[in-house]
Amino acid sequence: MAEPAPAAEPESRAGGSLGVRQAAFIxxxxxxxxxxxxxxxxxxxxxGSAVWISFLIAGAIAGLQGYSFxxxxxxxxxxxxxxxxxxxxxxxxxxxxxxxxxIYAVNAxxxxxxxxxxxxxxxxxxxxxxxxxxxxxxxxxxxxxTLLNVVGSEAVSRVQTVVVTVVIGILGIFAVATxxxxxxxxxxxxxxxxxxxxxxxxxxxxxAFLGFGVITFTAKDLRxxxxxxxxxxxxxxxxxTVVYVAVALGVFGTLTVQEVIDSGxxxxxxxxxxxxxxxxxxxxxxxxxxxxxxxxxxxxxPATGLxxxxxxxxxxxxxxxxxxxxxxxxxxxGTAAIAAVLAGCFDLSSIASIGSTVALLVFTLITAxxxxxxxxxxxxxxxxxxxxxxxxTVLLTFAITTLADEPATVALLVAILVISAAVDVGWKRxxxxxxxxxxxxxxxxx
Length: 446
Hints:
Elements: H1 20-34, H2 40-47, H3 51-75, H4 82-90, H5 94-126, H6 131-151, H7 153-179, H8 195-206, H9 225-252, H10 257-263, H11 267-300, H12 302-312, E1 323-324, E2 328-329, H13 330-345, H14 348-372, H15 374-377, H16 381-401, H17 407-431
Antiparallel strand pairs: 1-2
Helix pairs in contact: 1-7, 1-9, 1-11, 2-8, 2-10, 3-8, 3-9, 3-16, 4-5, 4-14, 5-6, 5-11, 5-13, 5-14, 5-17, 6-11, 6-13, 7-9, 7-11, 8-14, 8-16, 9-11, 12-13, 14-16, 14-17
């Protein structure tokens, strides 16, 4: 399939509603809620007290991918975000279609993960902490944030600005308090697992950075995406990495690895109690509710633009761009529905494994395609190659050391890949029978 023609150089748009800080905060909100409040227990099972190293390595890899996405986004800013990069890198064939559906699935998976974490904290705070309560709160927050996204990007950005400001401020207090009182013996390198396990932990902790991909979807709302998108990307990744490493050191320097694992999704609240008392436990619980609700909000944000853009270039059926009641996107409804099903049927660890594996695969392929287009984007090929190799290495290590022991997760991963391919093949077979001006596409992206 012929490669799409190069896009025109993006220009500043006076109507853009977001600035660098707002776009970065959408990304930070998606990352922090998906990571530090959700993953410490699951990551601790793999990397032990060396989780902070896994976070540091994952942040570096995310930075390499962020460089690739920033260069792509500056050249091809679009409501379709990183899917626009797939179209330019792979053309309009099945490879692009399958990856488009996989990215759509990843957004739903990330949303499900943080919604479950929200449910864990909410259920512990307001009910008996039962699994049923967790699922009810998880589905409830997905429904509430879906309605917020219907209001529009400005509402999303306002909410994210408040959430991120509160969360980063309180996490800063937590990090300072716990780091000042850590037990260095708990963090002694002699207690670390093997290097292979630490690298496997990177795949899980990388899930905590998946929110940076959301920033690529803000291009449609930025006044000057060519300059603002890269700045927002680097700012968000820098903030998230510092927060993750500091908090991981504080938690694993306060609790034993087993205590972190046993506390599940409430590890930060449990770690705050010895240092800040019962008030610290409740402070972190409330912060977690803010953060995971904000991350659910940010996780749903790309769905409308992604679906509109992919329908506009005929990678998705035009029905994905339809509006229910003139505002509610079918693409958004689909993401929310998938997230709700996952949140109600799977635990945190399985959801994180699925999301990380699919995202690492897609990111690897996008960076590989970027190498072909580097002269158009001005990207440094050495940085792209390092990013490609490091991401592929983590994916392979995770598959060998962790996924091999999770047959149910592997089965679901295979199912997601097969369903994505089947949906794409089915749509492409009948795509020529649906004219570009089909009324079902009304309301789709330009």
